[in-house]
Amino acid sequence: MKTSSLILALMLSVFSFSQNLEKEQKKAERKAKNLVYEANSLLQEDDFISAEMEYRKAISVQKDNVVGAYNLGNSYYKKGNYDEALFRHQEAAKNATTKEARHKAYHNIGNILMQSKECKAAVEAFKNALRNNPNDEETRYNFALAKECAKQQQDQDGGGEDEKKDDKKEDQKDKDKEKENKDQEDKDKDKKEEEGNKDKKKGDDEKDEDGKPKDDKKDDGNGDKENQQKQPKPQPGKMSPQQIKNILEAMSNQEQKVQEKINAKKQKGARVKTEKDW
Length: 278
Known about the structure:
Strand content: under 5%
Mean pLDDT: 76
Structural class: mainly alpha
Number of strands: 0
Radius of gyration: 60 Å
């Protein structure tokens, strides 16, 4: 019985605490709402300082007050205080409970980043806005502008770190190729010099002490040097083929002379006709 009473008392206590907490939250929500309303009215009267104070009170009363953070961010944006505006809109995007609230917060975050020339970050903000509302034409237009801005900044910066690394790699490749070509040229040059030295040495080996080719012979007037080089040297006790040829030619010439003498004698003893044949 005591245990049941204790449990019942505990449950009533928790229920009562929850009710009180809910009441406090609703109370804080109403108060924050009233403060935001008052701040909006002050802004319409161009009393920015008083409006800022009321927005801050609203956020202090209700930490996750999305409207207060959003409107305060807008007021900072209009005054050109982009750092504070960015912080408040990021706060609103974080605490937003609906897609429409997140869409508006991210859209304004993109605009603030564009004003600060942070185009690449603005692209991501507009992407988040479109994820929550892909049909908003203004967000789509701003997204296209941010992409173009980011591209121009990337081109001006030389393509970013990745492209710089690629450029360094290409430069290194060109240097390596140039070095390879130079090494090959040096090798070809050394090879030519080596071949030239071999030819020179070979030419020196083929010359005699007077610097003349060893195979050259003096012309004796009986034929050119090439024929003389082809003729075999005579050996002791043997006749060369050329000597034999010369002897045969001399014998043939002598025999021809003897035959001519014989023919001449025959012609002298023959009768000579004085009349012409008809």
